Amino acid sequence: MLMKRFKSVCSRALASALALAAIAVMTNMLLASPAMAQHKMNENDMEVPIDDMKVVDEGKGLFAQRCAFCHGGDGHGGKGPCITCGTYHYIGNTNSEIYATIAGGLPNRSLGGTMGAFGTTMTGEQILAVLTFLRWETRRRIADGEIPDPAKDKSNEQVVFPNTN
User: Fold this and answer.
1) Which domains does the chain possess?
2) Residue 103 contacts residue 127 (beta carbons within 8 Å)
3) What is the block-wise mean pLDDT of the chain (165 residues), using blocks of 10 residues?
4) How far apart are CA 164 and CA 152, in angstroms?
């Protein structure tokens, strides 16, 4: 009983910490007023500077160091899923949800796999750079015809976290 309560408290604390981290990053981005084009999935989503090649290149380097082992080169998939294919099957597709997943990980095997949390070993700016690279690479792959545009694919039913089916 005590262990169950401890796990519940820890889960709530992690969720609160992730929410505060996302708010801090979003606030920082709004105050910076970058001149580069931004990407966001909806009007309430955090923006990522996908046309700022300095941020994209930083994110690509960090991705190669921290993520490519599981997700393959440039996020095309490996032992972990493709994360530059336009859809995210274990979480929602917003920048905020992807940021929270990178920071907090996926500890629940029922979602199809697990991923460690990087929020304690990467700064918020580093996580944002990785997210920016992922969005840039996805956009590039769609433009080059490597993958279909999920926004135009009417048969594409994206799984949104949490999956209640």
Assistant:
1) 2-143 (1.10.760.10)
2) yes
3) 50 48 47 54 84 96 94 89 81 86 83 82 96 94 90 57 31
4) 25
